[in-house]
């Protein structure tokens, strides 16, 4: 009826019309998308193959297997399978048990390691907690493997610490002063609720109707026994936190008094251990915590610490000794004390015990500088031959170390002055300038590549075990980068 202009036929969007090209076959509905053999899923030089060979042929699994003594019950997952998943997960930054469970379905490398099985997150979490000590022992095994490959020279090591976020919020902490006030308030509330409950129960015994009105479905809005139970549990937690703060204050006062008495006896040329013990007990008995001393209800072992960014976090202080040659960690530990100064001797001793060799040089930053440690530096050099370069203060940004003064060192110079002068010499500057290049990249790799900024396990033992597992996986990654599966096969043979 009406005259309409002809419309050109539109080509479907996507491929341009007239393309004459043969493409590779793509059929999403084909029966098998992956190769029929698990061994064909990954390249030969993949990290997952390295982890599989490591667990199957190299690592000593006897500490884990020795824990399985009960024959009854449903068969658990093979420990080798679980170790494969945990080591690969901690090496690649997948540490959560739920994340590992998801990866066993979504990620080819995890499916390869699990032989297409899929352990649930509860099994993974229970295995990690149950065998935490054995998993932490993987650190020494990884270190010995690196030694066999010639990756640990112990010519120069660097000691440093970093703050790891605990699995707890700092907002769940309470100061000692506030604990006292809160305890008194809750105790008063409990007393009032008990009086009210006894009165209501007496009325309930007199008449069933009163009892129904008090505790029935349509009775009072507040269930007094439940309220009492909640407050009593809260009070018990607060009392435990208060006792922890008081015990820590007593231990600190005891240690300080004992050290002070020993130094007094040294000056007097005498030695009386009973007097030292008595001084410590007297100080502990009279010690009182500072009002701002805090305890955390979620993870009582963790402490509020200041991190490198200047922020205050609920954390643990993780320590590491790193060998310069290939940045292999030779000692790893965790403490609840924010200060690094208490760890100089223990960490270098642990490094020597793990490797069987004392380092020729040790580089330590200003956080470890104390009169006790400077004296330990001198003793360690005489006993073990370790030459320690310990910073005595922090430099401002872009501040240069001044040259050492000419002439002999004054006889009256203190240990700190002697160390400061040592660092201002050309050999001292050259040695200490390597500190950051040795240890700081290791912390950076653990934080980024292994997602190790925050701990998943609570308690000091849990934090220590997880930090050593992270250190072990760092060393294993270094071994993989240095030797690959070929070097590992030689160790297995």
From TrEMBL:
<feature type="compositionally biased region" description="Basic and acidic residues">
    <location>
        <begin position="249"/>
        <end position="270"/>
    </location>
</feature>
<feature type="compositionally biased region" description="Low complexity">
    <location>
        <begin position="282"/>
        <end position="295"/>
    </location>
</feature>
<feature type="domain" description="Transposase IS4-like">
    <location>
        <begin position="306"/>
        <end position="476"/>
    </location>
</feature>
<dbReference type="Pfam" id="PF05598">
    <property type="entry name" value="DUF772"/>
</dbReference>
<feature type="region of interest" description="Disordered">
    <location>
        <begin position="208"/>
        <end position="227"/>
    </location>
</feature>
<feature type="domain" description="Transposase InsH N-terminal">
    <location>
        <begin position="37"/>
        <end position="130"/>
    </location>
</feature>
<dbReference type="InterPro" id="IPR047629">
    <property type="entry name" value="IS1182_transpos"/>
</dbReference>
<protein>
    <submittedName>
        <fullName>IS1182 family transposase</fullName>
    </submittedName>
</protein>
<dbReference type="InterPro" id="IPR002559">
    <property type="entry name" value="Transposase_11"/>
</dbReference>
<dbReference type="Pfam" id="PF01609">
    <property type="entry name" value="DDE_Tnp_1"/>
</dbReference>
<feature type="region of interest" description="Disordered">
    <location>
        <begin position="235"/>
        <end position="303"/>
    </location>
</feature>
<dbReference type="InterPro" id="IPR008490">
    <property type="entry name" value="Transposase_InsH_N"/>
</dbReference>
């Amino acid at each position: 009826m009406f005259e309409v202009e002809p419309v050109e036929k539109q080509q479907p969007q996507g491929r341009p019309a007239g393309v004459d090209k043969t493409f590779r076959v793509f059929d999403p509905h084909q029966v098998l998308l992956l190769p029929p053999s698990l061994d064909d899923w990954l390249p030969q030089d993949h990290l997952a193959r390295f982890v599989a060979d490591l667990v199957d042929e190299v690592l000593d699994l006897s500490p884990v297997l020795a824990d399985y003594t009960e024959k009854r019950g449903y068969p658990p997952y093979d420990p080798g399978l679980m170790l494969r998943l945990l080591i690969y997960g901690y090496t690649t930054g997948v540490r959560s048990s739920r994340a590992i469970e998801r990866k066993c379905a979504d990620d080819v490398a995890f499916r390869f390691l699990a032989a297409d099985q899929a352990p649930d997150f509860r099994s993974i979490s229970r295995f990690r907690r149950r065998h935490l000590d054995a998993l932490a022992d993987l650190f020494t095994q990884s270190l010995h493997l690196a030694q066999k490959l010639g990756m640990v020279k112990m010519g120069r090591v660097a000691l440093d610490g970093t703050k790891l976020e605990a699995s707890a919020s700092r907002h769940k902490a309470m100061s000692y002063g506030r604990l006292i006030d809160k305890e008194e308030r809750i105790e008063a509330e409990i007393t009032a609720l008990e009086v009210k409950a006894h009165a209501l129960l007496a009325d309930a015994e007199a008449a069933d109707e009163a009892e129904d009105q008090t505790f029935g479905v349509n009775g009072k809005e507040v269930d007094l026994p439940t309220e009492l139970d909640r407050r009593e549990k809260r009070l018990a937690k607060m009392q435990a936190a208060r006792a922890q703060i008081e015990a820590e204050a007593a231990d600190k006062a005891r240690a300080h008094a004992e050290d002070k008495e020993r130094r007094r006896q040294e000056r007097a040329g005498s030695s009386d251990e009973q007097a030292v013990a008595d001084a410590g007990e007297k100080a502990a008995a009279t010690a009182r915590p500072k009002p701002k001393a805090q305890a955390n209800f979620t993870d009582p072992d963790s402490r509020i610490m200041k991190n490198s960014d200047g922020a205050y976090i609920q954390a643990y202080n993780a320590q590491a000794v790193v060998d310069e040659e290939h940045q292999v960690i030779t000692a790893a530990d965790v403490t609840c004390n924010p200060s690094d100064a208490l760890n100089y001797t223990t960490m270098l001793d642990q490094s020597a015990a793990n490797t069987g060799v004392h380092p020729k040089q040790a580089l330590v930053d200003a956080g470890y500088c104390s009169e006790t440690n400077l004296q330990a530096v001198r003793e360690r050099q005489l006993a073990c031959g370790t030459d320690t370069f310990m910073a005595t203060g922090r430099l401002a940004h872009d501040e240069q170390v001044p040259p050492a003064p000419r002439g002999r060192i004054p006889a009256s110079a203190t240990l700190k002055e002697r160390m400061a002068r040592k660092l201002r010499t050309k050999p001292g500057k050259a040695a200490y300038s390597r500190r950051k290049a040795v240890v700081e990249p290791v912390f950076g790799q653990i934080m980024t590549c292994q997602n190790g900024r925050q701990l998943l396990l609570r308690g000091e033992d849990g934090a220590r075990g997880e930090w050593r597992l992270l250190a072990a996986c760092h060393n294993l990654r270094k071994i993989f980068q240095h030797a690959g599966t070929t070097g590992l096969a030689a160790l297995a043979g």
